[in-house]
Amino acid sequence: MPLTRSLYFPIAFTTFLLAVDAAVTLALVSSMVFFLHHSGGGPFIIAPSEGAPFLLAGEPANLVANQGHTTNAAGGTALILVGFGGIIALCAEWRSREKVSPRTPSTVPGPRPLPNGNP
């Protein structure tokens, strides 16, 4: 069992990194969706160095509006399932292994007696 116990840290660390990645993705996509819903849709005033200022539409003509919401949902799902669910699963596995084979002083081997019987 020492090999399986040594894999706890790499698996937990990888799960933590995936949760951080999901949280960053969720934050970036959420800010993009917020921008498009509030100030990104309005016209912007463009003032070139030469010529008269003009209005530029905020949304492209062929923008797929559902893509940001879908990516936001995927990031949230990854954060909940991979991040929180993975950590909970690792903790539950660790606790179940501790109940089956607890580390007590009685399981630690002591010094062996000498062949002549003297300690």
Q: What does this molecule look like?
A:
This protein is mainly alpha-helical and 119 residues long. It has a domain of 80 residues. 60% of the residues lie in helices and 5% in strands.
Summarize the structure.
The protein is mainly α. 60% of the residues lie in helices and 5% in strands.
Helix-strand string: HHEEH
Mean pLDDT across the residues is 77
**Uncertain segments:** none
Question: Order of strands across the widest beta sheet?
Answer: 1-2
Number of strands: 2
Percentage of residues in strands: 5-15%
- Amino- and carboxy-terminal Cα gap: 31 Å
Q: Which percent range fits the helix content?
A: 55-70%
SS summary, helix count:
3
Choose one word for the global shape.
rod-shaped
Largest sheet, if any?
2 strands, antiparallel
Structural class: mainly alpha
Question: Which value, in Å, is the CA radius of gyration?
Answer: 29 Å
Question: Keyphrases for this structure?
Answer:
119 residues, mainly alpha, two-stranded antiparallel ribbon, 3 helices, 2 strands, 5% strand, rod-shaped
